[in-house]
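Thread: Lactonase family protein, structure

OP (GT): Posting the sequence first so everyone is looking at the same thing. Length is 353 residues per the record. Can we get the structure tokens written out before standup tomorrow? I want them in the notebook alongside the other entries.
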Amino acid sequence: MKFKSYLLWIPICLLSCTNPNTTLYVGTYTDGASEGIYRLQFNTKTGELSDKMLAVATQNPSFISFSPNKKYIYAAGEGSTSAVSSFKVESDGKLKFINTVSSNGKGPCHVSVNAIGDKAVVSNYTGGNISIYSINKDGSLNEASQVFDHNTGEKNAHAHSAQFYKDQLYVADLGMNAVYQYQLKNNAYNLVSNAIVKTTGNPGPRHFSLSNDGKFIYIINEYGNSITSVKKTANGFIEIDSDATLKENYNGKSYCADIHLSKDERFLYGSNRGENTIAVFKRDPSNGTIEKIQNISVHGDWPRNFTLDPTGKFVLVANKKSNNISVFKIDPENGKLTFLHAIDLPTPVCLLF
């Protein structure tokens, strides 16, 4: 019986193992030629993008996120209604609308889902608050169960991104120049700290990347054109490193956007809008510090968002203003990037595998 089972497994494996294609979804702004969320096929051997189609028509899906099982997609809609929507992934790759709820603040710019898939958080840039939602088994969103307002009488908050990590929730607030920390207790989140580390000046923390063990957080600063490296300790957090993202001889205006660790966490990547580059950093896994080793052109304009493919061998960059997606190959030895090609797509601002 074992021999027969093995024989049956061989053709199944051959079919699945020889197909290098994986699905990529693209969030966009729809004030121009774009109509919503697009779907493409990405070849994980060659880096080729193909078979572009409109997955669903929806207004300004500027950030999109999967459920853990990849059966549902959630989109922050920076439209006139300021909403977050849920969609079901169909067998043909198209998205079926499930429902929409209010983001409870203007300018929703980021959405993420926890590892279990029962909660989502939306960051409202203009509103300066975050909203937390429970997710039903059918993928639909309930109205927000909690809304945290970061605004004060003296400063306007601009919540820009948020991520769950186990029972923690971290929020980068560009307006308050801080990363907030919340903790889950009795099915509700409570504020632990309104600044895990102190900042000086106006760096503008925008996005961040956490190491798999949760011990290190890398914060990319939109105005400071820098990355702040933070280590978690028994008594809280400490800043261990601060590194510039731009070339030393670059004198123009530039604004950082997105940040991601490599699959093996030996390298870190950040995007510069203005210089229009990806900054590549070598990371020391033992102490978490980083060192810049490359700035490479994105072959486009305004790299608002980028991602690594599921194999960890490629970087794909969404260039908003030049209406294209650029593909780069990662050198597995030194982490540096080599440009392969680019394809046209209207106002891409979020890439999701």
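GT: Both are above now. Quick notes for whoever picks this up: The chain has one helix and 28 strands. The helical segments are 2-17.
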